[in-house]
Amino acid sequence: MTVAVSVVAAAAAADDRLLAREARKLRRSGSLGVSGWIAIGALVVLGLVALLAPLIVPTDPNAVSLSDAYLPASGSHPLGTDASGRDLLSRLIMGSQTALVGPLLVVVASTILGTALALCAVWFGGWFDQAVVRVVDAIFAFPGLLLAILATALFGSGLTAAVAALSIAYIPYIARIVRSAALSERSLPYVAALRVQGVRGFVIATRHILPNVSGLIVANGTLSFGFVLMDLAGLSFIGLGVQPPTADWGAMVGEGMSGVLQQQPLEALSASLLIVITVASVNILGDRLTERSEAHS
Amino acid sequence: MSTLLEVDALTVRLPVKGELRTVLRDVSLSLDEGKTLGMVGESGSGKSMTARAIARLLPSGATVAGHVQFAGANVFELRGEALRRYRANGVSVIFQDARANINPVRRIGDFLTEALRTNDGLPAKKAEQRAIALLAEVGISDPERRLRQYPHELSGGLLQRVMIAAAVTVRPRLILADEPTTALDVTTQAEVMSILRRMQQNYGMAMLFITHDLELASAVCDETIVMYAGMVVERQASNNLHTEPLHPYTAALVQARPEIDRRSVRLPAIPGHPTSAYEAPEGCAFAPRCRFAQDQCRVAAPPLLQIDQRGVTRCVRMPEIRNQLRASTMLLAEGISREEVAR
Amino acid sequence: MTETKSIPLPDKLASSWAGWPTLRFILGRILGLLATLFVASIVVFGALYLAPGNPLTFLTQGRSMSQEAIAALETQYHLNDPIWMQYLRWLGELLHGNFGTSIVYNQPVSTLLAARAPATVLVIVMAAAIVLAVGLAIGAYSGLRPGWLSRWTMAGATAIMAIPTFVAAVVLIIVFAVNLGWFPVFGSGAPGLDAVYHSILPAVALALASVAFVARLTQAAIRQELSAEHVQTAVSRGLPRRYIVQRHIVRNAAIPVLTVAGLTIAGLIAGSVIVEQVFQLGGIGQFLVSSVQQKDFPVVQAICLTYVAAFIVLNTLIDLAYALLDPRVSLGRKSS
């Protein structure tokens, strides 16, 4: 199965490099730039909101009051209410928690697993390397969303199964990048020099190679955060992810569909907007980090 | 013999990081029909940029002062169809890195015949015949098969021959050879060089031969120009270059290269680093590295001086130090070390 | 991740066996395809044993089922055999086109899928057409004409790439279905033109982010070719601009662009599940979601396997197309 996706993977990687190189040509400095800092600012604000959500929500996000459905914006409900009369602003604030924590867990887990796998593969080489390559290629054959749906079918709807499934599904992306970066890093003279000095392989891999590819790892993790967020929100949107009554942006877009048909699109639109802002910020930051890690290498 | 190419006081600036940097300063040269002019200098001295200016291949945003005349036409005023014709049949460029300069996903045959087919309207069959004949002429065996191969299937030496053949197919009046052999290994270099010479003579083309190899230039060219920091520092007949350099920089280059029949403990390197045109100091650009430099060298940019009928130099002290330079160069040639010369 | 190992043949051999490396390449790819399908089938089958509880209780999910139905399930999955036997039997049935029986509908899964497949295929094909036509056109245009318009287009493309499929679907519904009333909100329509009409909004929603991605990619690839040395050579030879654009710039940029565009289209398969759900197209994707909710595991298994198979087959086809487009690959060498 290595062959099945190999050239395609190579092409995808080549394409990533292409985009990055093109962008770098426009902006050679390697700094984050204005857009990068705006993205960081937006993400910091969103992160703080998610962290402090229980403290800053104006009202109970799950307090149902059917007589207050679709209230317009007012003093007590700054953004109005949803179909069940729940405060929209409070739900958006609470929803940031599930929307951000899920992708964060996936990115951390897949990055750690993928990096460890790739470094071991590069370090031990031989059949172990080939085995890792094959496993990674096999995982790549499953689209992340599909694996997550399969997981919810097995373990029941909810975030847990989906997060676990996506953590596995996103391993190939990071593992491929780290493996090829580490391979080219390993062929550099300084690694040979360290080996001659009798430095242990484990030390070389963790103390020397890993720090040198860390920029790449962070950039890639940032970029996949956006994709995972879209996958998880999509899953909640179709009702297989975060379960009601828990507030979640993706689920709110789904629940807001009935409002859409009744000319009350605010719930769906506001949650959509937050998703788009988050993903856009993460993507911009990821692009800048990629440029920077390439500029430094 | 009529003058084919005339470059007059050419100055080129390129935009780098928001500022215009001078890469060529007051470059003048002329080349007669059928003759070969060498251009020698370190990387960054402006050799390639001169060739690119002549072929109108300067990067966008470059500003140009001065003139380039080709067969009576002002090259910088050529537009549209006239510019295309000039590039198509006036000059051909042979680039250093044939592998990067030939489209990797098209066949050798496409590369060789595309100019004939699109510019001269030759039928495919005829263009192919001409390509096959030329491949044979540049010493490539089995040319019919080569036409159907892709660049990655050919070695660097073969590709450079293909490049030469492609440059010659359109029968240009001038060939700009930009370090055509630098990327090749030594034995291939000699072969490619002799092919290039033969083709030039067979078709009576003039050639601007760019190299960093002083020896090669003087072997191949009628006249040689030495470039430093975007300027012409010396121009004279090639066979005098070694025995009687007209600039301390050339003299230093001559002395800095090893020779088979000379034993020396260590090669005298030129102190300091080569400068680019935009960071060159006031006065003579070579002054900081020149052992003959005096205060007058650091004050004003030296003009081009005519030295007898021999050639021109950009060294103001040349009239006084000329004999000294010649003596040291000749002594070196006779196998006496530099330390002894200094004494 | 893996590089194709190259075994450069001697010149003579290569010319007399011109077709051999290509053939070997294709055979290798097909073997790889089969191997990946095999692994995918193991994963999908093994999923049953990953689930909490024993397979039978997982399959029945506490439904009150007749003895015959339970017996049928046991026969279908051969639950009394050793696991590897169960798998081989299941695989054998699959290869004979038997995808099992739906627990909820009590009908053959293959019949249920066949009825729903056209809606899914239609929306994916339409989205793919949009991705190729619009993405390539925008990318090529802004690649060949640098300037403020090109810069703003690319900035817009970056923003659009941050829009998830379901958000695009909801916004399209609000604007074009609810407010303007140009398109229906839900449903797949009658077969034929009506189905196409019903699939326009879903296809646009599904294609949107991919259009932006392909446009960006095309633009970058063309920019890179524009500054390539071989293009400079073509310019120095006085070739007409039109010729240079067609034969050198577009020809070379097409190789990575078509490959990645193809991959992007393969990626639409997973996204189609979501648009089908939003627009209630009644296709396989919507069936997958409802089967997950109704715990109809044989259907879930069959659909997952179908999707993965379609994804892998598409990937392999793109892989082969890439080799045909790029002469450097067909001879077993990896392009750099």
From TrEMBL, chain A:
Biological process (GO) annotations?
Answer: transmembrane transport
Major localization listed first in the record, in broad terms: membrane
Task: Provide GO CC annotations from the record.
Answer: plasma membrane
* Domain named ABC transmembrane type-1: residues: 96-286
Task: State the compartments where it is located.
Answer: Cell membrane
InterPro entries cross-referenced by the UniProt entry: BP-dependent_transpt_permease, MetI-like, MetI-like_sf
Give the protein family: Belongs to the binding-protein-dependent transport system permease family.
| Protein name, as recorded | ABC transporter permease
Give the superkingdom in one word: Bacteria
Give the residue spans that cross the bilayer. 36-57, 100-125, 145-171, 217-242, 268-286
- SUPFAM superfamilies documented for this protein: MetI-like
Q: Name one Pfam family in it.
A: BPD_transp_1
Q: How does it sit in the membrane?
A: Multi-pass membrane protein
Give the record's keywords alphabetically.
Answer: Cell membrane, Membrane, Transmembrane, Transmembrane helix, Transport
UniProtKB/TrEMBL annotation, chain C:
Cellular localization per UniProt: Cell membrane
**Which protein are we looking at?**
Peptide ABC transporter permease
Per the record, the GO terms for biological process are: transmembrane transport
Q: Does the keyword Transmembrane apply?
A: yes
| GO-annotated cellular components | plasma membrane
Entry's PROSITE patterns? ABC_TM1 (PS50928)
What membrane topology does the UniProt entry give?
Multi-pass membrane protein
Transmembrane region(s): 30-51, 119-144, 156-183, 195-215, 253-279, 299-325
Tell me, in one coarse class, where this protein mainly resides.
Answer: membrane
| Protein family membership | Belongs to the binding-protein-dependent transport system permease family.
Q: Which Pfam families match?
A: BPD_transp_1 (PF00528), BPD_transp_1_N (PF19300)
Among InterPro entries, the record links this protein to: BPD_transp_1_N (IPR045621), MetI-like (IPR000515), MetI-like_sf (IPR035906)
Name the UniProt key words of this record, in alphabetical order.
Answer: Cell membrane, Membrane, Transmembrane, Transmembrane helix, Transport
Give the ABC transmembrane type-1 domain ranges: 117-318
